[in-house]
Structures are given as structure tokens and as C-alpha cells.
Amino acid sequence: xxxxxxxxxxxxxxxxxxxxxxxxxxxxxxxxxxxxxxxxxxxxxxxxxxxxxxxxxxxxxxxxxxxxxxxxxxxxxxxxxxxxxxxxxxxxxxxxxxxxxxxxxxxxxxxxxxxxxxxxxxxxxxxxxxxxxxxxxxxxxxxxxxxxxxxxxxxxxxxxxxxxxxxxxxxxxxxxxxxxxxxxxxxxxxxxxxxxxxxxxxxxxxxxxxxxxxxxxxxxxxxxxxxxxxxxxxxxxxxxxxxxxxxxxxxxxxxxxxxxxxxxxxxxxxxxxxxxxxxxxxxxxx
Length: 286
Fold this sequence. Notes:
Layout: E1 4-19, E2 25-41, E3 45-49, H1 56-63, E4 71-76, E5 79-80, H2 86-92, E6 96-99, H3 113-123, H4 129-142, H5 159-171, E7 177-181, H6 189-206, E8 209-214, H7 217-223, E9 226-231, E10 234-240, H8 241-246, H9 251-258, H10 265-285
Parallel strand pairs: 3-8, 3-9, 6-7, 7-8
Antiparallel strand pairs: 1-2, 1-4, 4-5, 9-10
Helix pairs in contact: 3-4, 3-5, 4-5, 9-10
């Protein structure tokens, strides 16, 4: 049997809608995540794809317990994360990390590169100061970043370089699971390819497991073993990456695929017509 590292069952996250200025009343709720279920095998990548607002990132934050789920189960390495106390959760977080979408706002501009990458080690009290310095240089070298730049600040580097710093920080505690929250969407296309190749190399070298969140099906296909397609808080299609990409079953998946650009103007025009038809079909379902 396959070794399941992460198991999510019937996950819900609802945000209350308030009304009133002096006395706020709850008048409704937004179902950002509405009954999500999937498994992620050890050493594999599950791609979570959908449009902005579909609930992808919220799902990732709920898995890491950065947001408390409204209901549902999140089992990681056999532990039910929703039931863990603060200290237990803190220790478990050494095994699961995140790479954020924005390489600019996710790094503290007042901290040096060395302090940013070494912060997880300091927080968890791992090693002496000299050991941490050595570990930081090693991590920066692993992600293709010059270790001699540890005393510089984030504003001195490009978006791609900053994302490498963020990846090094995520690797600091040698986690088993990394949630990649649209890690290349803010980068140029050529830099995107470099970061994706880096993530694949790291997965191979360190036996990492990824939950890879993105809105671009082409990017997700490159990275994923299994793809889950989200729409309005629900998973509408789940299956092997190649199957979902070549033989989509749900109209929403077909609409996402029709938006992937191809270098052929005539085919793009045909896709535009098909996209209008799919949007009409989806609107009639709602």
C-alpha cells in the first residue's frame, strides 16, 4: 500500500459575514473551503489548482493550522492536527513548512538573509550559533544562492533570488511536507522555470512531499503526480496529472485548460469560442 503522509477529510473553513458598525451581527458566511477531501503520498506532489478565490490557499493554511478549520480532519504522519495542543503543534510544524506566493512581502526587510534562513533553527533551539551559521550557508548553497550574501538584506535581490531565500528558509528544519502556495506566480516566465526545476531537484534529493498550489494548469502538470481541481471551495475533479490534463471530465477543468496559451493564433481563436461555451455551461449549473 502507498504510504500516505497527509490525509484531509471533509475539510471546511467558513468566514462570518458581519453587518453593523457599533454592534456587529453575523448575517451570513463565506464557505471558502467546503468539504475538501484528498490524500498526499510520501515523496509525491499533489497539485491544487483553480482560479483566484476558489479556496486553494485557504486549504493550505488550514492544513498547516495557520487558519483553524471550521470542521473536518487533517491527519499528518498519523496525528490529527486539529486536536493538537499548542506545544504539540509547534513541534509537529518542524515537519511541515510553507513557501509563500509573494517573495517580496514574505521576507522581513529588517532582517539579513542569514537571520531569515536561520530563524527557524533559532526558534526551535537547534544547534549553537556557529552551527546555525554553517547550516544557513549550506542551505543557501543548496538552493543556488551565494552563501557570501548572508549579511545582505532582501531589498538587494531580485524576485527569483528572494524566492530562493524563502525556499532555503522552508528547508531549514528538514521538513517532510512543504506547502508551495503559488511559488512562481509573481516571477518572470524564465525565472519560473528555474524555480520549478529547483523544487523538483530538492524533492528528489531530500525525499520531500509537496502540496503545490497554483492557478496555472500547465505549471501544475509539470510539478504534480496527482491534480485536484478546486472551484468555489470544492474539489470538482481529482486524478493522475496526465489524465486530468489530457482527458478532463468536469466542465470547469476544461475551461481552465482552454485558458492555457498555445503558440497558434487559429487554435487560440477556436479555444476562445469553446471557452465561451464552457462558461455558459458552468453558469447554467449554478
